[in-house]
Amino acid sequence: MTLLLILLVGGIIGWLASILMRTDAQQGIFLNIVVGVVGAVIAGFIITPLIGGAPITSGAFDIMSLFASFLGAVVLLAIVNLFRRGSVR
Question: Which residue from 13, 44, 45, 46 has the fewest beta carbons nearer than 10 Å?
Fold first, then answer.
């Protein structure tokens, strides 16, 4: 059940991050899920030590973990855009 919640919340977080970074037209639902879950993993290593909390991949679904996972997804999309387009946006 936790894996299903991680995939569902990761998909929503990836979708919101892709809207913010203007890559939503290039991604489908599968890539939104991947971006959300990989963004949560990035948040676990980089963002949560700075702001506290836990990423959604650890099973925590509070506001701080959702915010950290969202920031991780935005960082992931910024890195991808930097290599693809030569700019963050």
Answer: 45
Distances from the Cα of 31 to the Cα of 22, 26, 48, 54, 85, angstroms: 14, 9, 23, 23, 18
Among candidate residues 63, 36, 39, the one with its CA nearest the CA of residue 51: 63
19, two tokens: 């809207």
Q: How many domains is the chain partitioned into structurally?
A: 1
The per-residue pLDDT for range 24-50, each reduced to its tens digit, is 777 788 989 999 999 888 888 888 888
User: Which domain range does residue 50 map to?
Assistant: 1-86
Of the candidates 30, 37, 34, which has an alpha carbon nearest to the alpha carbon of residue 58?
Answer: 37
Tokens (6 digits) for 50: 């700075």
**pTM above threshold 0.70:** yes
Nearest to 18 by CA among 38, 36, 42: 36
**Alpha-carbon gap, residue 6 to 12, rounded angstroms:** 10
